[in-house]
Task: inverse folding
């Protein structure tokens, strides 16, 4: 322990001496500033402001490089900043284009770049800070326009060509001048920011055209040179001079304004302190604007002295700050030494206390942990014993359930086999052949066969789970084997016009396969292909011999395919694709994969414009165990005729009609099971005109037909039976139609949900045909009673009555519309249908279903009721009443009135 403490102290003393000198360097933010100002005043003002800002920030290490207006030197300075890996670079470009490449290099090196005063070409920099040179040009132009009283002729003296401030100031200046027709830029002199570039060209221009009112120069130096040139020609008082910069120095813009040389100058701020603040925000990855504009103002005789005083005070404050910074640095050094001493003493104290506490804690902790570990160890042992006991109980329970399941499945096979045997005998019975009963017997046989196959699949699944399958492979000509299996499907292919082909170049190709298991694989794959391939589609089997001693068997169809994101799940037990609305056990493909794996082969699925299953098997028998090979070839078990246990094949169930269609009620069956639909059609078509829908168009078909009654399943293709019933009952066009739910769902919740959706009867499968027929008859009888009520109370229906509430609402609304238009001779059935929001055909069918007469007769009856009221009032004669109610003549009105009331209008009026 002593050696450990000694080592800690030595390490602390060694590192402590480096803290004060290295910590500051490590924590410093390195900022490189490439200066390119062309005058001492600018350079002094810019450097002073950025240095003062840096002195207020001890964490900043600022390096300033002055290029002295040399582009090459400025590029070298920036390259050096990059190689020294500074944190941020601030650049004041001499020219835009030459510096673009080196700035992009800095950005690629991960060093942010702040461009100050002048922009580079392109946008590959972090941020820009400077005055808005376009706005400076505009301000100068506005100042000239607002103060001009003379000719309006102007000379512009621009900065150096290629300089962004020169270009932008000219752009802004011209924008405003060109908007005022009285003002004109007579000449433009291309200066280079220096005085000498102005004198000669300006003198020549003034000699030729002395009628100049204003000269706008892009900086104060060129403006001063312009004044001096004009003075040599005696024009200095006639012309007014505007400059840019407004430096507070000898011969600076402010002094020139005060002395009357310049009429005005526009402040161009250096922004040194703002540049450093923005650079630090870039380093700290704070959110900043890409373009940061400094504010500017016009300085003339009105404010020159005020601005000068303010700048002088700023300079004085900067000197005070510098002296205070020096004092602060002295205090920092003293604080650093004292801080190190305090740290050292604190460290010793912490070490001593830590060692004391650690020794006490260690003793107590070791004792507690030992006891805790003993308790945990005992708990783990107890829990492990409990888990083992629970696992044994669960294994026994699971085994018992599986044995019961397997035994029960075997028990199912016996009665199903007996049923199928008797049904087959009935099919062969000469007394039944040729009668309508033969189709029903075949339907029993088909569904018994399907149930037997499902039970066999469940037993195979149990064997696969217990790994009880033993491969019995024999040498088989795969082409002949495939043809034998395909023979069972060719009848269905012909019936549905499906192109069903086998492609194999080597018909003598032999493989070692278990014919019984491979038969089930073929059957499952072909069953799926026929199930999901539409009529007139294509199914093919291709046998391809490969160079790598393998054979690939391709099962390809033009069906609906399988979604890409579900391909990896198709071989999982009980999986069902999202686009599969067919009934299936979900274990067929799983069994197929397991049977192929028993052959040491593989099976994969591709799904593009249909589905393609590819089985890969090895040639020869070296990959099999000796016990898995047999010499005697086993014949295939006969596959039931075609695949009627998995496909929707419509049996021809027909019964002779005993009533004509005009005498029958209409019945709509909404069911997606084709066999059940055909069965119901066969049994109900004698008494009803039967329509059917699989659910995808149920509501549309119901509204089109307006049937007398509807039978509806719950589990359908699109909407379920609850939704369909609710929508039909809410729709005014179909609310009167009785609905019977016929479903396998018999629990209390399902029945309650069905009744809540508005159905009139709820029957469960398996159902009694006689009960179904009686339910239909009863509902139609009740509808007839409701029709009788409406027929005899058609003009006295109470809206608040609970009997036939929705129909009452319809009748009440219809009668109100008719009564309001009873004296309108142009009112027709079409107008009524339009106001009720239904078609003319739907209105006719609904009114016929509710009150038993057509809508035209009903409108006439309402008119005749109104006529009876008018005759009683004795305010109009018979002819007036007839014409007011839209009858073509009084004679026709009298005939219609007598047909309804049994007496003529005249007799009725007299009796009143």
Result:
């Amino acid at each position: 322990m002593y050696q450990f403490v000694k080592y800690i102290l030595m390490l602390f003393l060694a590192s402590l001496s480096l803290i004060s000198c290295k910590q500051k360097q490590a924590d410093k933010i390195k900022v490189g500033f490439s200066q390119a100002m062309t005058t001492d005043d600018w350079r002094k003002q810019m450097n002073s402001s950025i240095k003062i800002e840096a002195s207020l920030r001890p964490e900043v290490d600022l390096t300033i490089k002055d290029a002295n207006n040399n582009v090459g030197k400025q590029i070298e300075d920036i390259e050096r900043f990059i190689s020294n890996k500074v944190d941020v670079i601030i650049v004041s470009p001499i020219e835009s284009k030459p510096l673009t490449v080196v700035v992009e290099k800095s950005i690629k090196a991960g060093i942010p770049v702040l461009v100050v005063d002048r922009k580079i070409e392109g946008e590959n920099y972090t941020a820009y800070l400077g005055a808005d040179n376009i706005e400076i040009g505009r301000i100068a132009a506005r100042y000239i326009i607002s103060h001009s009283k003379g000719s309006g002729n102007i000379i512009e003296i621009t900065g150096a060509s290629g300089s962004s401030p020169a270009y932008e100031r000219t752009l802004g200046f011209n924008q405003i001048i060109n908007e005022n027709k009285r003002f004109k830029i007579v000449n433009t002199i291309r200066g280079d920011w220096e005085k000498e570039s102005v004198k000669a060209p300006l003198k020549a221009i003034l000699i030729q055209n002395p009628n100049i009112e204003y000269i706008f120069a892009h900086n104060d130096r060129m403006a001063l040179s312009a004044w001096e040139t004009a003075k040599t020609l005696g024009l200095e008082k006639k012309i007014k001079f505007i400059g840019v910069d407004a430096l507070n120095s000898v011969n600076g813009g402010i002094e020139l304004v005060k002395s009357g040389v310049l009429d005005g100058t526009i402040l161009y701020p250096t922004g040194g302190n703002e540049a450093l603040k923005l650079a630090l925000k870039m380093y700290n990855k704070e959110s900043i604007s890409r373009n940061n504009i400094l504010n500017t103002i016009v300085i003339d005789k009105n404010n020159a002295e005020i601005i000068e005083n303010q700048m002088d005070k700023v300079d004085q404050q900067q000197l005070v700050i510098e002296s205070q910074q020096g004092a602060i640095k002295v205090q920092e050094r003293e604080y650093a030494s004292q801080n190190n001493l305090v740290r050292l003493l604190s460290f010793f104290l912490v070490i001593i206390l830590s060692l004391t506490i650690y020794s006490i804690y260690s003793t107590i902790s070791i004792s507690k942990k030992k006891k805790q570990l003993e308790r945990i160890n005992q708990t783990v042992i107890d829990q492990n014993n409990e888990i083992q006991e629970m696992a044994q109980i669960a294994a026994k329970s699971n085994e018992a359930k599986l044995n019961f399941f397997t035994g029960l499945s075997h028990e199912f096979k016996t009665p199903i086999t007996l049923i199928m045997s008797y049904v087959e005998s009935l099919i062969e019975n000469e007394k039944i052949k040729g009668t309508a009963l033969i189709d029903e017997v075949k339907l029993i046989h088909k569904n018994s066969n399907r149930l037997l196959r499902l039970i066999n699949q469940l037993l195979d699944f149990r064997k696969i789970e217990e790994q009880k399958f033993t491969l019995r492979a024999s040498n088989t000509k795969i082409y002949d084997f495939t043809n034998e299996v395909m023979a069972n499907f060719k009848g269905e292919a012909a019936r549905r016009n499906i192109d069903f082909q086998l492609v194999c170049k080597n018909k003598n190709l032999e493989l070692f396969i278990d014919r019984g298991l491979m038969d089930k694989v073929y059957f499952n794959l072909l069953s799926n292909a026929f199930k999901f391939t539409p009529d007139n589609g294509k199914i093919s089997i291709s046998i391809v011999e490969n160079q790598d001693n393998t054979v690939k068997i391709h099962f390809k169809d033009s069906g609906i395919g399988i979604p890409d994101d579900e391909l990896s799940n198709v071989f999982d037990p009980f999986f069902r694709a999202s686009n599969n609305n067919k009934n299936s056990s979900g274990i067929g493909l799983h069994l197929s994969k397991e049977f192929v794996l028993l052959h040491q082969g593989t099976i994969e699925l591709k799904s593009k414009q249909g589905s393609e299953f590819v089985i890969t098997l090895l040639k020869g028998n070296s990959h099999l165990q000796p016990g898995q090979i047999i010499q005697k070839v086993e014949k295939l078990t006969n596959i039931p005729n075609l695949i009627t246990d998995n496909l929707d094949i419509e049996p021809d169930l027909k019964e002779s009609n005993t009533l004509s269609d005009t005498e029958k009620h209409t019945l709509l069956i909404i069911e997606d099971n084709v066999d059940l639909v055909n069965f119901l059609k066969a049994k109900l078509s004698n008494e009803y005109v039967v329509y059917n829908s699989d659910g995808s168009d149920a509501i549309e078909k119901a509204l089109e037909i307006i049937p007398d009654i509807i039978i509806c399943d719950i589990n359908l293709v699109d909407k379920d039976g609850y939704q369909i019933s609710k929508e039909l009952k809410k729709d005014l066009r179909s609310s009167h139609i009785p609905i019977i739910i016929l479903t396998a769902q018999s629990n209390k919740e399902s029945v309650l949900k069905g009744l809540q959706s508005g159905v009139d009867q709820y029957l469960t499968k398996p159902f009694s045909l006689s009960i179904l027929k009686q339910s239909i008859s009863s509902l139609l009888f009740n509808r007839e009673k409701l029709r009788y009520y409406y027929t005899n109370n058609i003009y006295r229906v109470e809206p608040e009555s609970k009997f036939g509430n929705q129909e009452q609402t319809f009748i009440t609304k219809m009668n109100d519309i008719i009564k309001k238009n009873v004296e309108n001779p142009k009112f027709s059935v079409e107008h009524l249908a339009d106001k009720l929001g239904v078609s003319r055909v739907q209105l006719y069918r609904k009114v016929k279903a509710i009150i038993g007469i057509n809508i035209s007769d009903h409108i006439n009856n309402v008119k005749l009721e109104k006529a009876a009221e008018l005759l009683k009032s004795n305010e109009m004669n018979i002819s007036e009443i007839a014409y007011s109610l839209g009858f073509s003549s009084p004679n026709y009105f009298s005939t219609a009135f007598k047909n309804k009331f049994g007496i003529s209008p005249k007799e009725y009026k007299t009796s009143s």
Observations:
- The two ends are 129 Å apart (CA to CA).
- The first strand starts at residue 29 and ends at 35.
